[in-house]
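Input record (one chain):
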Amino acid sequence: MSTITSINSKRNKLAMCCAGALFGVLAMTNANAGDSKYEATMDQIERSYEAAEAHCDTMSGNNKDICIKQAKADKATSEANAKATREHHETNVDARQEKRDAQYKVEKEKCDTLSGDDQDACVERAKANYKQ
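The corresponding structure, as predicted from the sequence alone:
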């Protein structure tokens, strides 16, 4: 029974290690994730996977097979989460830009009621306010 307990203890330690690494990786992919942060996250995922795989190499038999499968599953999950975070960020950026563009058009249209320098100043304010 102590061998099984020891194996389960090793699995639990590996699971906690992987969960901690996953948490760290997900923390790196925040709402401001850009391509460089995404690449850094993917590099961290790869390093975490390699560390888990090295730990699995200390095992043998079915326990090693289970450990490797778990490490691969953790890596795939982390990669999917990082990708989803990046895509979510890009979608939000696009939506904010579309909202700005729409509001800019409204403000610019309001400027049409003015003439001369007042109209020019109004258009410049709208451009500045909506980053056009």
